Amino acid sequence: MQLLLPRVSYLYSYLTRISKVSRTSLATVGILLLLLLSVSVRNGASANQGPAAPQTQWLGLASAQTKAQLEAKALVFMVSAPWCESCQKMQELTFGDAQVATYVNENLLPVPIDAESDQPLHLSGQITTGRQLAQNFRVKTYPSVVYVRGGDTVVIPGHQKPANLLDFLQRLESQAK
Questions:
Q1: Is residue 21 domain-shared with residue 95, that is, in the same domain?
Q2: Partners of 154 in the β-ladder
Q3: Which of 68, 71, 128, 161 could connect to 132 by a Cys-Cys bridge, CB 3.0–4.6 Å?
Q4: pTM check: above 0.90
């Protein structure tokens, strides 16, 4: 940006000295210069940003089941509905939190479940749906997080703040080991 400003001011002063340039043309050139400057500033700002924060790596149900058997990790279902604003906020803010995302990605197998979907899902060799899973887990409110390890299932109902969810999951994992 420092290199661009002297060039912009020089060009502007040069254009103002030319008597044949109309005010409209000068205004057009000025607007173009401002656009060029804003693009330059925006590109410079994005180039200076650090690495992106970790995001929760959501898995499909089939791959999560396979990994659960191979890696001996618990499944964590984020049970939500498309119309649920609180579900969207929890997915964005709670599961988007760097500490939660890092912990979940390293220790658990996260799977999103649409509790109103009738799309077929394969679970333990059987075909089910998101709606049936939510009913089987006895989910009563959206959003809910369902922790499954072996035969144990724990439902964490309602929107959870990042620190609360992280605490719940860490305690469940420490009890399981």
A1: no
A2: 147
A3: 128
A4: no
